[in-house]
Write a structure and sequence with these properties.
With 503 residues, this protein is an alpha/beta fold. The chain contains 17 helices and 22 strands. The strands form five sheets. The protein has a six-stranded mixed β-sheet, with helices on both faces. β7, α6 and β8 form a beta-alpha-beta unit. It is globular and about 70 Å long. The structure holds adenosine-5'-triphosphate (ATP) and magnesium ion (MG). Magnesium ion is lined by residues 50-51, 93, 179, 407-408. InterPro entries: AAA+_ATPase, ABC_carbohydrate_import_ATPase, ABC_transporter-like_ATP-bd, ABC_transporter-like_CS, P-loop_NTPase.
Length: 503
């Protein structure tokens, strides 16, 4: 191919990008053009190659020989030179923040600190710059010296994004966002997009990787679809329906949403007068076999409920009972003994053990079933793990794979398998389907319905209310730290839910 075939004014024009990992072709001759001034979504099932594509652009992975790239008409060879890299900005799926550092240092990390005449760091300038960029997200009140780990998941995402938006050397460039919004509630996605639109209006191109298809239609001009490492289509979003996009991503594998079976009479979880920081008088019960959704805008208290129930956060007053027994919610470990299983929202911080294989990540929470006389029974463990790998649809279905080398959505499936395997009385889920593609999502929902049908009570906290009406028996809505509404029967539909959350 000659460079004459490149699109000269494209912000990014990538040709023939392939990547092989251990003999498997993860990207297969991908051609992608991002126009200057456009938001270009890239979608695809878990493991279809989206993050690998982003990592090739960032220089983290080298593509196979034959790949070519132009940025605003300039041709770059792989590995990409520093100059080429400077015109691209990245926010990766795992955000790339350093936990032990504070906000200021995390922002300074990728853009360097300005130094004064004598080579000393100009802290005042660095501080002002960090504060200015955070102000765009209403986060300038944060203490710049606070460790990143003290921020909420969505605040961390915003710091990573703010960092990505800092330091554009020229007015043009390409911003690559890899599922940056996965941990963000809708309201914050709007704030993010406003800032992204500012750089777009100055001529930048944006590559926007997401699983949230509503975002694709709301924000993106065009969308490209990856399937098994191949780029199967690039379309304008105006010319597509959601169903057509899903079909391009997964073929016609998406099953019908089925309603859950009726819940039983017996109460599995009773939560009375739970009060404390950010929450007051939380009062609700969940019956055996019932799936109860917890919805609400950011700051409503919705994001605190799961941690409060399983004792992962500050102490709350009130009483909790599991199947009629009082429990203490003093720590996640204690809550597991009390019959809870928990899927936390921050899978990298509190969820997976990155360097351990899938097998151990699934079984580590409870080895009792597979232990006999103190020894692990290898074959029993293998068989069980393989069943779970099938059940959650892990790709690749390899129990010995280090979890960190799985795609983000597949890491999430490992966490779900671990929690479901405990066969808990109460399953508490905090943003359980973040990063999971539409096809896998319906399989996960089916698994939750089956789990409920066996008698488990499920509390599902999520910022994504779309699927709640089909999945849940009831949805409680929070505002100002307390429960303000409960949707059942005819009011349990998407419209009423959105109105109730927003009012
Ligand atoms: N370092 C690695 N070593 C081996 N295989 C890898 C590595 N990184 C990714 N893979 C494999 O490459 C494939 C594509 O992964 P990638 O992370 O690009 O998927 P993705 O489209 O971003 O998925 P998700 O939506 O789940 O984030 C997967 O099968 C993954 O397991
Ligand atoms: Mg990914």
């Amino acid at each position: 191919m000659t460079s004459a075939e490149f699109t000269p004014d494209a912000a990014l024009d990538l040709r023939h990008a392939s990547k092989v990992f251990g003999g498997a072709k993860v990207l297969d001759d991908v051609n992608l053009q991002i126009h200057s001034g456009e938001i270009h979504a890239v979608v695809g099932q878990n493991g279809s190659g989206k993050s690998t594509l982003a990592k090739i652009l960032s220089g983290f992975h080298q593509p196979e020989p034959g790949a070519e790239m132009q940025l605003f008409g300039h041709k770059y060879e792989f590995p990409i030179s520093d100059e080429g890299r400077e015109s691209m900005h990245f926010v990766h799926q795992d955000l790339g923040l350093v936990d032990s550092l504070n906000i200021l240092d995390n922002i300074g990390l990728s853009h360097g600190y300005r130094t004064g005449r004598f080579g000393n760091v100009d802290w005042k300038h660095s501080r002002r710059r960090a504060r200015d960029v955070l102000a765009g997200f209403d986060l300038d009140h944060l203490d710049m010296d606070a460790p990143i780990s003290s921020l909420t998941a969505s605040q961390q995402a915003i710091v990573a994004i703010a960092r990505g938006l800092l330091g554009w050397k020229s007015e043009t460039g390409t911003l690559v966002l890899d599922e940056t919004t996965a941990a963000l509630p809708h309201e914050e996605v709007e704030v993010l997009i406003k800032s992204v639109r500012k750089v777009v209006s100055r001529g930048a191109g944006v590559l926007y990787i997401t699983h949230r298809l509503d975002e694709v239609f709301a924000f993106a001009d065009r969308v490209s679809v990856l399937r098994d490492g191949r780029l199967v289509a690039t379309r304008t979003t105006d010319s597509l329906t959601r169903e057509e996009l899903v079909a391009l991503m997964v073929g016609d594998q998406v099953g019908e949403m089925r309603k859950p079976l009726p819940a039983r009479e017996e109460i599995a979880l009773s939560c009375r007068d739970l009060s404390g920081e950010g929450l007051r008088d939380i009062d609700f019960v969940v019956r055996k076999g019932e799936i109860v959704g917890v919805a609400g805008m950011l700051g409503s208290g919705r994001e605190l409920i799961a941690d409060a129930i399983v004792g992962a956060s500050r102490r709350y007053s009130g009483t909790l009972e599991v199947e009629g027994r009082p429990v203490r919610a003093s720590s996640p470990r204690q809550s597991m003994k009390d019959g809870f299983a928990f899927v936390p929202r921050d899978r990298l911080l509190r969820g997976i053990v990155p360097k351990l294989p899938v097998r151990e990540n699934i079984t580590l929470a409870n080895l009792d079933d597979i232990k006999k006389n103190g020894h692990l029974r290898g074959k029993v463990e293998d068989a069980e793990v393989n069943d779970w790998i099938q059940a959650v649809g892990l790709r690749p279905p390899d129990p010995e794979r280090q979890v960190i080398s799985l795609s983000g959505g597949n890491q999430q499936k490992v966490l779900l398998a671990r929690a479901l395997r405990l066969r808990p009385a109460v399953l508490v889920l905090d943003e359980p389907t973040q990063g999971i593609d539409v096809g896998a999502k319906s399989a996960i929902y089916e698994l939750l319905r089956e789990t409920a049908a066996r008698g488990t009570a499920i509390v599902l906290c999520t910022a994504e209310p779309e699927d709640m009406p089909d999945l849940c028996h009831r949805v409680i809505v929070m505002r100002g730290g307390t429960i303000v509404d409960e949707l059942t029967e005819s009011r349990l539909n998407r419209n009423d839910l959105i109105i109730s959350c927003a009012s």
